[in-house]
Amino acid sequence: MSSAADTASTRPSTRPKTSPKAIKFLFGGLAGMGATVFVQPLDLVKNRMQLSGQGSKAREYRTSFHAVASILRNEGIGGIYTGLSAGLLRQATYTTTRLGIYTVLFERMSKADGTPPNFFMKAFIGMTAGATGAFVGTPAEVALIRMTADGSERVCVCVCVRERVCEREGVCVSVCGCIPTMARAVVVNAAQLASYSQSKQALLDSGYFRDDILCHFCASMISGLVTTAASMPVDIVKTRIQNMRMIDGKPEYRNGVEVLVKVIRKEGFFSLWKGFTPYYARLGPHTVLTFIFLEQMNRFYKIYFLDS
């Protein structure tokens, strides 16, 4: 008679079939790029507002609507999509890496029967994936900040990185802001995971929601509000450092702390949250659209390749 251990060892694995790792990375990048097509104008407005009025309390843009009106008046309808090529490149690097690593680690940390890891492990996986993705995507994000700052969509994103950054200011500047970018990614993922999980559970417990797209959308918007408030000071540091110029052969800022001190002293404490409205309006829908696209691609892949 065989032992229980022998029986267990010969029992077929109940772990569900999943797509190859390359497909996980591919779908993650495509989902992020698809979402960016819809929210790029909000990212443009957010960056313009964060860069306006540097060194003084006089702001170029009074509100988000004023920024949009100014862009449309001065740059035309196409101006609201300035920097789209860099935005897509950023998603192709940052989101491909972030979602790919998150999905792979999530499945590896799940049990054989498909039971997901606990909340704290999810948070750790998310922060790890976010920091890694931010490191990979920093050069593309530098190009995005520069192109949205001066309305230079007419210039190819590769030319922007090569000529405006690497050749004029040094190769090291192409990865400037790497530390605040990674710090922002850690803050965003930590806040996003915790607030999304709690918001979704609260909505489901209320009895008015089911676990569907409407619930996911509402939870994402609540999560976006919390994440925006938590991450904007880090985000404005990242934006200022990535857009800084070399003055007499020296960088405009030495580190992120100097950015915070100068912004608070010269522009006021609440300037750390300049661009709050477009940032929040971008973060929630971008999260929803990214995961809707991702879930649909995974669904079709499962139907036509895994189950066929």
From TrEMBL:
The protein's assembly and partners = Interacts with SMIM26.
Instruction: Provide the protein name.
Output: Mitochondrial 2-oxoglutarate/malate carrier protein
Compositional bias of type Polar residues: which residue ranges? Answer: 1-17
Q: Name one GO molecular function term.
A: alpha-ketoglutarate transmembrane transporter activity
Organism field: Cyprinus carpio
Q: What's the protein's topology in the membrane? A: Multi-pass membrane protein
Among Gene3D superfamilies, the record links this protein to:
Mitochondrial carrier domain
Q: What does this protein do?
A: Catalyzes the transport of 2-oxoglutarate (alpha-oxoglutarate) across the inner mitochondrial membrane in an electroneutral exchange for malate. Can also exchange 2-oxoglutarate for other dicarboxylic acids such as malonate, succinate, maleate and oxaloacetate, although with lower affinity. Contributes to several metabolic processes, including the malate-aspartate shuttle, the oxoglutarate/isocitrate shuttle, in gluconeogenesis from lactate, and in nitrogen metabolism. Maintains mitochondrial fusion and fission events, and the organization and morphology of cristae.
Q: Which UniProt keywords apply?
A: Antiport, Lipid transport, Membrane, Repeat, Transmembrane, Transmembrane helix, Transport
Q: Does the keyword Transmembrane apply?
A: yes
UniProt family annotation = Belongs to the mitochondrial carrier (TC 2.A.29) family.
GO BP of this protein: lipid transport
Q: Which reaction does it catalyse?
A: maleate(in) + 2-oxoglutarate(out) = maleate(out) + 2-oxoglutarate(in); succinate(in) + 2-oxoglutarate(out) = succinate(out) + 2-oxoglutarate(in); (S)-malate(in) + 2-oxoglutarate(out) = (S)-malate(out) + 2-oxoglutarate(in); malonate(in) + 2-oxoglutarate(out) = malonate(out) + 2-oxoglutarate(in)
